Every structure is written in structure tokens, then in C-alpha cells.
């Protein structure tokens, strides 16, 4: 069994709580590491050094005064730039929100703060979380620490790269169609999207409201479990949160006798052979621990990409209507009329992919097309959910690859939106069905002299978050992949 | 499921309040057509039975009680233009003749 990661969130919090190291000392080490590695990784949109130092001093003083330390006491964290922290620029990687300082803090971030975490930086991301490579950012493109010529995956590109580079042990991203699981897989870290409603969305700048979930990234599943204990729970400010208390981890979970579904559709012809081999190795490990592998058919998977891109863009076209030069960000005057000002502000403020998605979403909701596009996509979503529900009557978990390929080169798919959309083919099904899903490192593919991480995805039935995480933890306890570090970050 | 020529994109952009240049329209139209073409197999999904089929349970409503909300000044502080406690936007109503202000 692997020893706990001494630089992980749980270990660091314990170190601070015991008084063996001050929060300020950890923070300075973190800031030095950021200064050293950022030129090569470019994970961070901005570093909040002064804010973090003040907070670290306050935490050290509180501990000295006898205040009981929280579960993430003194743990440095990175936030995706679509998570509101009062007074700190939260621009979603978009010029349309440049300079926006929210007057309030996201519930998830408030819960991190209450547990003693120290936000040290905002991470680069695809503009409004729309992208699979991090390249759709107005402010900078994060690189994959395993090979800086490649994408860390998106849209939580900087959050994943920051954890993979060891800048911080824990980061928050958001996962709408795989935006945490995909970069987790490509960066060799662990990322978890909870059951829809498990984590409050209050203070997350909305993209696809029926899909969005704030989701943590860490180097170990143990740290994800710790994060979920802090982040989860009902919130009066988000009516879609599940009416439940914080998640309790399944400490005694055993894979023996668990039935693990292997959908044929997740191992189709588009799957990279090296990814297939690594994931098959991971499945063999589950089997070695006593799990029973069961072949499954999930034929509606074939509709998942169009279904997702119709529904998510429809919701986005509505959610992003608020960025019109009235309430936030820079304004363009246009022809001087109100409509002209709005159209010009949006045309100048949004990047190409966001415009493409707003147009697609507006189109599928428009008169004459709504039934044939939005209506059909809603029906496909219902069918997909029913198919998962039937599958989970037979199995406890569903397993497969997180991404069909290892990390691709920056620039490789930017000219072909459709090819970029297909990167999400294995992550959007769980999003559409609102299911908990985790990605954990399962092996490596060698290319251009670099080791490129491969992710294993485990999906569970709605509400089974603790079991999904526990199964992933059992896998990690018996495998070395998550403990490997990119050479660049030694 | 429908065609997407430059005119459709132009109409959609107007609905979405996006001022697109001719070059953007020219670039987007074929991309749009290709994406929608690739999504045609959505037609294989069963016909939609009812609106909002995905909602399992109605969202929980909070108690109808007054509670603190964000201060007006805090929100207005982020606006590109504000005056006397209001957002400022270009004039939308023409003043009647003889009533210049």
C-alpha cells in the first residue's frame, strides 16, 4: 500500500495543525515554486501574493490563539478564474469580464476559506469554460507539465497544470462536460465531478446551468475526498443543491465482489491503442482486487456529443446574455444606440469559440429549429439517463478511459472545432446524466521522448459519490501512477 | 434539420446581439454547417414527449422571508457607467419634439 503523499493537502493541513510548520512558511515555499516553474507551465492567470500572505499570517495567529484548525488548515489552493472571490478579479478568461471584481464569494470558496485554505492564485482557463485544451483564453494558455508543447486539457487547464506541476496540492475547477476530468487525465492528476447538486454553484459564473459542477483536482483521491467533505452540502443560495449534509467518505469500502460495467462504446475505434492498454491494465487491477468486470452496451453514447453541444450551448446562449456592457466589464460604444452598444461590446469582448457557441445555442433555440434540435437533444438526454439507470441496476460502477487520446499538441485542434468537441466524447455522458465521475492516473503513453499520462474514469449512480471516490482510492493504493511527477517539476 | 447559410448566421447573430463582421460570417457559416451536419444523427433520438423531461424533482424553494442582499453600491461599482444609484446606458427613448433635455 502506498504511503500518504507528504506534500498532499491532508498531510500539509495536519503538519500546520500540529504546529510543525507555519502556514506562512508553506506559503513562501509555494510562492517560490510558482516563481520558478510558472515560466514553463503558465498555469496561473494571476498570483494573489499579498492577499495570501495576509491570510497566512492571520491563520498562524489564530492557531497561536488556540482556534481549532480546519480540515484544510493552511493548504494553498488555486481557483479557476470563474469562481468568485470577493474583491479579486474573476474574468473567466474573457475580455468581456476584464477587471471584474465580484462583490461576493462563491459558496464553495467560502467553504474552503472556512476550512482554513489559502487561495494563492487564479488559474488560466478556456473562456467561460468553453474548450477542451485551455487555448480559448484571452489571457494566456497553460501548458502540460509532462510536455510543455502539449495541452493540459481544458477547460480547467491551469487548475490541472498547477496541481500536476506541484504548485499547489489542491485546485478547484468546474466540470460542465468533462472540464475537470479531461485535464486531470491529460495532466496525470485526480479530478472528481460530483453528482449534480452535491456542490453549490453559487458564485460559479454560469455556462450550462443544468450541467455545471464545481470540482476539485488533487494528486491523490484521499485529498479529493477531503475536499468533497468541505465543499459539499445543501446551500440556500443554490436551489439545485441536494438536500443533504456534507459527504462522508466510505473508509471501509472494498472492491471485492463489486460489479464494474465496461461499456463497449467506451472502447471504440477512435481510442488510442496506448490509452486502451493502460486502461485495460487498470481494469485488471480492479479485477485483482476482487471486482467482477461486466460487459455492457450503452448505445445512446453515440448521441452524447451532439446532445451535449446542443444543450450546453443553448444554456450558454441564455447565461451569457448578461454580458452586454451594462453591469460588468469594459463597454464598446458601437453606433451609440443601446442595441448597438450591446452588440459591439459582445463582439469585442467574446472570443471566437464563445461566439460560435452563443450562435449555436441561439440557433437551436430559435423559431423553426427548436423542436428538431433542442427538443431532440432533451429527448436524447432523457434516453441516456434511462440507459445509465438500467445499467446501474446491474453494476455498481462503470469504468473506461477518460480521454480517447493522451495530451495533444497545442494548436493541433484549434482550427477544427468539431475535432475539439470530440475530445469530450467519454466525459459528457456522465455530465448529461448528472452522475458522479472521477478520473485517476492509470498509466502513461510515450511520445516524442515524453511520458504522457492516461486517465481511468470511474462513474457511479447518482448519489454514490462516496463509493466512486472510495473505489478510486482503492485503485490508487495499489498502483504507482499518481505518485509519478513530471521531470520538468523535479 | 435545416440549412445554415450566411443569412441564417446573420439572423442568429442579430438575435444573439453579436455584431459580426463579414469576414467572421464567412468563416463561421461553413463551420456551422459542418457541426450541424455531424450532429444530424440526433434525429435518431426518440421524439420529445414533454418539455423538461430531465427534471426529476422541482427545485427547492427557500422560505419567503426577507434576507440581506448585496448592497447596490457594491454591484454598481463593477458597472462601466453608473450615476445616482442606477446603471447608465445609451438613451433608448426619443424625447418628444420641443421637450429637449
Looking at the structure, the CATH topology of the domain at 9-257 and 470-489 in chain A is Amidase signature (AS) enzymes
* Radius of gyration of chain B (Å): 23 Å
The radius of gyration computed from the alpha-carbon positions of chain A, rounded to a whole number of angstroms, is 21 Å
Question: Which percent band covers the strand fraction of chain B?
Answer: under 5%
Assess the beta-strand content of chain A as a share of residues: 5-15%
Measured distance between first and last alpha carbons of chain B: 51 Å
Q: Which strand order do you get reading across the main beta sheet of chain A?
A: 1-3-2-4-6-5-10-11-9-7-8
* Total of helices of chain A: 15
Please bin the fraction of helical residues of chain A: 25-40%
Largest interchain contact? A-B, 68 and 52 residues
Strand order, biggest sheet of chain B? 1-2
Overall mean confidence score, pLDDT of chain B: 83
Q: How many strand elements of chain A? A: 11
**What letter string, H or E per element, gives the SSE order of chain A?**
HHEHEHEHEHEEHEHEHHHHEHHEEH
Give the overall silhouette of chain A: globular
Largest sheet of chain A: 11 strands, mixed
User: Which descriptor suits the 3D outline of chain B?
Assistant: flat
Amino acid at each position: 500500500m502506498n504511503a500518504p503523499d507528504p506534500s498532499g493537502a491532508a498531510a500539509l493541513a495536519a503538519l500546520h495543525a500540529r504546529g510543525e510548520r507555519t502556514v506562512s512558511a508553506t506559503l513562501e515555499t509555494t510562492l517560490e515554486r510558482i516563481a520558478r516553474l510558472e515560466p514553463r507551465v503558465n498555469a496561473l492567470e494571476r498570483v494573489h501574493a499579498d492577499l495570501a500572505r495576509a491570510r497566512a499570517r492571520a491563520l498562524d495567529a489564530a492557531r497561536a490563539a488556540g482556534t481549532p484548525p480546519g480540515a484544510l488548515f493552511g493548504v494553498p489552493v488555486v481557483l479557476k478564474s470563474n469562481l468568485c472571490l470577493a474583491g479579486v478579479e474573476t474574468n473567466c478568461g474573457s475580455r468581456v469580464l476584464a477587471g471584474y471584481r465580484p462583490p461576493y464569494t462563491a459558496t464553495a470558496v467560502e467553504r474552503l476559506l472556512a476550512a482554513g485554505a489559502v487561495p494563492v492564485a487564479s488559474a488560466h482557463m478556456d473562456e467561460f469554460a468553453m474548450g477542451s485544451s485551455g487555448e480559448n483564453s484571452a489571457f494566456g494558455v497553460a501548458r502540460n507539465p509532462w510536455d510543455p508543447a502539449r495541452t493540459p486539457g481544458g477547460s480547467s487547464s491551469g487548475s490541472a497544470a498547477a496541481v500536476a506541476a506541484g504548485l499547489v496540492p489542491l485546485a478547484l475547477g468546474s466540470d460542465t462536460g468533462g472540464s475537470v476530468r479531461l485535464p486531470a487525465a491529460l495532466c496525470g492528476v485526480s479530478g472528481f465531478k460530483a453528482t449534480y447538486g452535491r456542490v453549490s454553484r453559487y458564485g460559479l459564473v454560469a455556462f450550462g446551468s443544468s450541467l455545471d459542477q464545481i470540482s476539485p483536482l488533487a494528486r491523490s483521491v484521499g485529498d479529493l475526498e477531503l475536499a468533497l467533505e468541505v465543499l459539499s452540502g445543501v446551500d440556500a443560495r443554490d436551489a439545485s443543491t441536494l438536500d443533504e449534509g456534507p459527504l462522508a467518505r466510505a473508509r471501509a469500502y472494498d472492491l471485492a465482489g463489486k460489479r464494474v460495467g465496461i461499456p463497449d462504446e467506451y472502447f471504440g475505434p477512435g481510442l488510442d491503442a496506448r490509452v486502451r492498454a493502460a486502461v485495460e491494465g487498470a481494469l485488471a487491477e480492479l479485477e485483482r482486487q476482487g471486482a467482477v468486470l461486466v460487459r455492457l452496451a450503452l448505445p445512446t453514447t453515440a448521441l452524447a456529443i451532439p446532445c451535449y453541444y446542443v444543450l450546453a450551448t443553448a444554456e450558454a446562449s441564455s447565461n451569457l446574455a448578461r454580458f452586454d456592457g451594462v453591469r460588468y466589464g469594459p463597454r464598446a460604444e458601437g453606433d451609440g444606440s443601446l442595441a448597438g452598444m450591446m452588440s459591439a461590446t459582445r463582439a469585442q469582448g467574446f472570443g471566437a469559440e464563445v461566439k460560435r457557441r452563443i450562435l449555436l445555442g441561439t440557433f437551436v433555440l430559435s423559431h423553426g429549429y427548436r423542436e428538431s434540435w433542442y427538443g431532440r437533444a432533451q429527448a436524447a438526454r432523457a434516453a441516456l439517463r434511462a440507459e445509465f439507470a438500467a445499467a446501474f441496476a446491474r453494476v455498481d460502477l462503470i469504468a473506461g478511459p477518460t480521454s480517447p487520446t493522451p495530451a495533444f499538441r497545442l494548436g493541433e485542434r484549434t482550427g477544427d472545432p468539431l475535432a475539439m468537441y470530440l475530445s469530450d466524447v467519454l466525459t459528457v455522458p456522465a455530465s448529461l446524466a448528472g452522475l458522479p465521475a472521477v478520473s485517476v492516473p492509470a498509466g502513461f503513453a510515450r511520445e516524442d521522448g515524453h511520458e504522457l499520462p492516461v486517465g481511468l474514469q470511474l462513474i457511479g449512480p447518482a448519489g454514490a459519490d462516496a463509493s466512486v471516490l472510495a473505489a478510486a482510492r482503492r485503485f490508487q493504493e495499489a498502483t504507482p501512477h499518481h505518485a509519478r511527477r513530471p521531470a520538468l517539476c523535479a | 434539420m435545416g440549412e445554415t447559410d450566411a443569412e441564417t448566421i446573420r439572423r442568429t447573430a442579430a438575435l444573439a446581439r453579436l455584431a459580426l463582421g463579414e469576414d467572421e460570417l464567412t468563416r463561421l457559416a461553413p463551420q456551422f454547417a459542418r457541426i450541424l451536419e455531424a450532429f444530424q444523427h440526433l434525429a435518431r433520438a426518440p421524439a420529445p414527449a414533454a418539455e423538461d423531461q430531465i427534471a426529476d424533482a422541482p427545485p427547492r424553494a427557500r422560505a419567503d422571508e426577507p434576507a440581506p442582499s448585496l448592497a447596490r453600491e457594491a454591484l454598481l461599482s463593477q458597472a462601466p457607467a453608473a450615476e445616482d444609484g442606477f446603471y447608465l446606458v445609451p438613451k433608448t427613448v426619443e424625447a418628444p419634439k420641443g421637450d429637449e433635455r
